[in-house]
Automatic annotation (TrEMBL):
Pfam families in the record: MT-A70 (PF05063)
Alphabetical list of InterPro entries matching this protein: DNA_methylase_N6_adenine_CS, MT-A70-like, SAM-dependent_MTases_sf
Name assigned to this protein: Methyltransferase 4, N6-adenosine
Coiled-coil regions listed in the entry: none
Family from the record: Belongs to the MT-A70-like family.
Cellular component annotations (GO), alphabetically ordered: cytosol
Organism: Lepisosteus oculatus (Spotted gar)
Gene Ontology molecular-function annotations: nucleic acid binding; RNA methyltransferase activity; site-specific DNA-methyltransferase (adenine-specific) activity
GO terms under biological process: methylation
């Protein structure tokens, strides 16, 4: 059970902490701070009425404190696995904020801080070392005024609407994060080595493409599910592409699948496929929560060719109504592109008979408590959007809504966390949703790239971040089963 240490509004006004790129007026605003709770939950570091401060790495690790690897049906290895913390090390903002004025710096650290900030900005713009700075002669360059296109104009309007929400909502969480020692200086890990990124998971999408040629073994509900059994060779026969695979043990498992080693969380299930092979998922069960993280189309993805994207219109093919239990809570991650946001609200959710309830914001910060991008950056924003809705289609949903009142979902909640440096490795919503769903709720993630304990996951890269090479492994004493 989580324990809370509630602090009063008055006590919060006295907290002193480093700046996280607020102006002086914003930082010392007279707006009352919400009451905050310190949570013993390893995923939710802090919470208040505005949202949560999350630690995604801790959430992953709590599933792998006890992990089994079977050598034979009679012998097993006891392991403790931890996701490599380096994947959650973002020590400095990706873009240096140039909005910090001299008066801001003086208030935060005196004249020396002003000089340091000026040197950083100059060094960043000129790309030279500190030793060369005195000889630099700056030249004024005229900037051509460029009118905003429709997409940029729409984004600016949306940003002005949520800017105050982000500033006021994240202020208390970040201040208390400094107070309890959660954040640390970027100097603490200077010179740390980067971690190479495994490539084994990149073959999953190709395997799914090849699996399109495989016939369905059956569409019978009972035989479209398989369980990871015990024993050294228990996974060789598994059909990952046309059957839902379960780990029904209360501990995690290290298994070999398709010649690679993967970690499976306790009580999880998954289907490795694309949209052409979703029938086993439809045969499996109905869900009370469905989270989608679609590979949205955008220009940078097209240029870099980093991963395949899905045109927005194709999302209508996802059988959300067929997967939804009455009153299912549907949550979709979306980029800041307003075209995609309008598509969800005006086309996609109505097509699925999902009523829009709220929009939440994921605010991305560094390990030192700064936004990963300046909040007012015209190009990159330090936040993404989640659109929450309720499935209202079918007779069962109508009956349920009349018999049972759903827990209301508030608007404009914030999820604040250090993002993973791995592409599309979103923070889990499992702990923050506990306040709004039944404890026995069945949960599904679509377009997943990792597994979660107690959840079902689907996607053509669903095992990607479960590959053993993303983890540090510690072996404990072997245990002989009796």
């Amino acid at each position: 059970m989580c324990c809370f240490n509630f602090l009063s509004t008055q006590s919060f006004s006295k907290i002193q902490s480093p700046s996280w790129h607020l102006s002086i007026n914003e930082k010392h605003s007279s707006v009352p701070l919400p009451v905050i709770g310190l949570c013993c939950n390893m995923s939710v570091v802090l919470k208040n009425t505005k949202g949560w401060l999350l630690d995604q790495c801790s959430y992953i690790n709590k599933s792998f404190q006890q992990c089994l690897s079977f050598i034979s049906p009679q012998q097993k290895r006891n392991l403790r696995c931890r996701f490599k913390r380096k994947y959650f090390e973002i020590l400095k903002p990706h873009i240096l904020s140039k909005s910090l004025t001299n008066s801001d710096c003086l208030a935060l650290g005196g004249a020396e801080t002003v000089a340091q900030e000026e040197r950083k900005i100059t060094a960043n713009s000129q790309k030279v070392s500190d030793e060369e700075l005195p000889s630099i002669t700056t030249k004024k360059r005229k900037r051509k005024h460029k009118e905003l296109n429709q997409g940029e104009s729409d984004l600016q309007v949306y940003h002005e609407k949520v800017r105050k929400v982000i500033l006021e909502g994240s202020r208390a969480l970040l201040d208390e994060g400094f107070t309890c020692g959660y954040f640390y200086s970027d100097k603490a890990n200077e010179g740390s080595e980067s971690v190479s990124r495994p490539s084994a998971g990149s073959r999953l999408a190709d395997l799914c493409e090849m699996a399109k040629e495989l016939p369905f073994a059956t569409e019978n509900e009972e035989t479209s599910v398989q369980t990871v059994g015990e024993g050294a060779n228990s996974t060789e026969h598994l059909d990952l592409f046309t059957r839902v695979t379960e780990n029904n043990m209360d501990c995690s498992r290290l298994v070999t699948l398709m010649g690679e080693q993967y970690l499976l969380p306790p009580q999880c299930s998954f289907l490795l496929s694309d949209m052409s092979k979703m029938q086993p998922l439809l045969n499996y069960q109905k869900y009370d929560v469905i989270v989608l993280d679609p590979p949205w189309e955008n220009k940078s993805v097209k240029r870099s060719n980093r991963y395949s994207f899905l045109p927005a219109s194709q999302l209508k093919r996802i059988p959300v109504p067929g997967l939804s239990a009455p009153g299912c809570l549907v949550i979709t991650w979306v980029t800041n592109r307003q075209k995609h946001l309008r598509f969800i609200r005006e086309e996609l959710y109505p097509h699925w008979s999902v009523e829009v309830l709220a929009e939440w914001l994921w605010v991305k910060i560094t390990n030192s408590g700064e936004y990963v991008f300046p909040l007012d950056s015209p190009h990159k924003k330090p936040y993404e959007i989640l659109v929450l809705g309720r499935y209202s289609g079918g007779k069962e949903s109508s009956l349920r809504s009349s018999e049972k009142q759903e827990i209301p979902v508030p608007d404009q909640k914030l999820i604040v966390s250090v993002p993973s440096t791995l592409h599309s490795h979103k923070p889990s919503l499992a702990d923050v949703l506990k306040e709004y769903v039944d404890p026995a709720a069945k949960c599904l993630e679509l377009f997943a790239r990792n597994l979660q304990p107690g959840w079902t996951s689907w996607g053509n890269e669903v095992l990607k971040f479960q590959h053993l090479s993303y983890f540090n492994v510690e072996e404990t004493d072997p245990d002989i089963l009796t």
